[in-house]
Amino acid sequence: xxEQNYSNVQRAEVLAQxxxxxxxxHGKTVVVKYGGNAMIxxxxxxxxxxxxxxxxKVGVRVxxxxxxxxxxxxxxxxxGKKPVFVDGLRVTDQETVDIVQMVLAGKIxxxxxNLIETKGGEAIGxxxxxxxxxxxxxxxxxxxxxxxxxxxxxxxxxxxxDQGYIPVISTLGTDEEGNVYNINGDTAAGAIAxxxxxxxxxxxxxxxxxxxxxxxxxxxxRELSVKQALKMKEEGRINGGMIPKILCCIAAINGGVxxxxxxxxxxxxxxxxxxxxxxxxxxxxxxxxxxx
Length: 292
Hints:
Blueprint: H1 8-25, E1 29-34, H2 37-40, H3 42-57, E2 61-66, H4 69-78, E3 85-86, E4 89-90, H5 94-118, E5 123-127, E6 134-138, E7 146-152, H6 155-162, E8 166-170, E9 172-174, E10 180-183, H7 185-195, E11 200-205, E12 223-225, H8 226-234, H9 242-254, E13 259-264, H10 270-276, E14 282-286
């Protein structure tokens, strides 16, 4: 049904159906990890920012955590520096970490802040370096300046939320010596969600969610307990790039997040579908129930 024949009555019905969810999430904290095709496509990027602004306007405390791997690779190639990956991680020497800082904390972060504001929201961009928000240590010398999160300082985020701003966070971290590290975006988002005891961690990906049959995109699993997700991983039914996302979701739940959700960022307004409808838009990972 297109916009022309979507009647005012139907619009009112949609808003009325969303009201219980708006009430349920009012004043709650939601961390959105954003990247992939939803970031690359200009149309999808605008829709995601519209969704975030709408959620903020109805009282949801939204935190946007973003990556930017493809744009980092593009700039590296333009500068004549070939990206190198080991075990799926970008090898990050000093020159590369400077490029990562330019792209994440500079271009992408400020572009998203500007877009949110053009959609009627109020946003302030941060990197994990600001206020020692993301504290980190080196993961392994073979990866260079790739870091693991050691601590999250939530104060800069809470200060912005309390003032009505949407924090937009790029995933760079620092150690006590001031070294800058490239931090995996999913891991950083999970750690931030845990530090804030968020209601939801929502990870926007390039896939539908967890599937019963990975060859059948229609076999989406709407909800899994932690125990069920781990069992599927052990059985090999969750594999490849989905494994670290599932483990990140589980780590967030173990850290105090109410539930983690993997949604398809390629679907228009998937974020609103997840928050404001009963069906949701992906796979929810929840804590184990007492009967399990």
